[in-house]
Each structure stands twice: as structure tokens, then as C-alpha cells.
């Protein structure tokens, strides 16, 4: 359940411009306050994907002070306030968000769409290396895998909760849940690792961005939730593995073949009493058929 909650918070990041906490759950942030590379960079032509709130009346894109990257969209704004979020690692303050773009499946941050930059302009401003990585890796592959792995991780986590209900009542159910948890943990780990590496790779172009007056910063809080989701999934898998090995689901005292203790009643035992020069001895013989349960004493 904890895994599903962590993943839900990740998916809700950047989806509500009026919520300071959710709007500050981002994978990366572009600070645009010092953009000086191109006199036309802050007034590029709009395109069909540009938000209505992010354009001038004469049809130009307004470059905001910052852009934050979420799982399904981006948010942008022109200021900052002092509201800090819980687990605000790597964030000095919450940003004053003006708007968040519409959510899209398999979304990726594309400068040619968000900033209205033609590919040739991107090459001139950011260089060939960034443009090649952006076009041939991030926008063509990474964004697809990030959203796909997230959806699969959420689906398997939810199904594991349902399967785990059966695992509470029997060892066989625990075995099935353990097997299921292996897939859940694997997909959560794949999502966490792939997403982290993707945006770390984007951060390596910071010097390139700096040439254009742009500063890039990795998000902190959202990655904590991403890795907490995997960690809780891993711990849950260990629990189910332990329960399948050590918990049979059978009430105590019902183990087959349990030998009775001396003096305990058992219909399948009999007592034989014999006399020796040293006194009377008693022998308990267990697990005999009922027909032998007669008990006898040797005569004098």
C-alpha cells in the first residue's frame, strides 16, 4: 500500500498549479531569468501545442522565469515564494506557478514545442550534442519508457495488493504473492533507475544551458518518492517471502505425526505394565492401531 501511495504522489506532480506542494514535485527545472543568447529567444512564434496562458496577444510565446518537468506535463511561472514543501530536498523554495500545461501520455519536455524553438535554433543555442540526445534518445525513447514503466509499476503494485489478500490465509497464497512481488519490485526498480539516469543525463548539459543563460536543476523531492516506492516494494517482497517459508497457515497443535507427551491421552497408544525384582515399570508404545488398545498386566 505504501508503494502505491508513493507512486501516486509522483504521478500527481505538476498537475495542479494552485497546489504549491504538487507543483514543486518535478524531475528537473529550467531557470530562464538570465536568458541572453538570442534577442528573439524570448519572443518565438507560437505553435499548436503552446498554452493560451503562455502567449502574447500578437501571437508570441512568453518565456517564463522557470519551467519544471513532470511525468505528464510541465509547469511554468514568473516568480517565487517562501512556501517550502515537506522533503524539500534540492529546492530552496516553492515556485510561484502561473500555469501547468495539459497532460499527455508519453510526454517529454521539447524546447521546439514549449519555447517555440526550431531545431536549427536549438543547434545554434545548445549545440549538436544536446540536440542529438534530445531528438534521438529523450524524445524518441526515454519519454516513452518512463511513462510505460510507471504505468506498469502502478498496475502491478495494485494487483499485488489484491493477490496479497489471499496470501494472508495460506502458505500457497503467500507463495503466489511472493512471485508477484518479484515483478512489482522489478518494475519499480526499473522505473526509478531509468527515470533517475535520464534526468541526470539531462543535467550533464548544464554547461551548454549556461551558454544560453539557462540554469538546470534536478528535482529532489520527487526522486525521494520514486526511490521510496521501490524500497517499500522491496521490503514488502521480503515479508511475503518470509511468510511463504515460515508461516503455514495451520493452527498450532494440528501438525500431523506429533508424538504425545508422557501422560497425554491418545487412543492409539497402550500401556504395558511389568514387574521386575526392582519394582514395576511402565512402557508407553505410541502409534498403534486401535485394536491393540486393550492394555494388559502380566500376572504374578
Automatic annotation (TrEMBL):
It holds the Pfam family SUR7. One of its GO terms (biological process) is fungal-type cell wall organization. Residues 1-17 form the signal peptide. The chain crosses the membrane at residues 144-165, 172-194, 214-242. GO terms for cellular component: cell cortex of cell tip; plasma membrane. Coiled coil: none annotated. Keywords: Membrane, Signal, Transmembrane, Transmembrane helix. This is Uncharacterized protein.
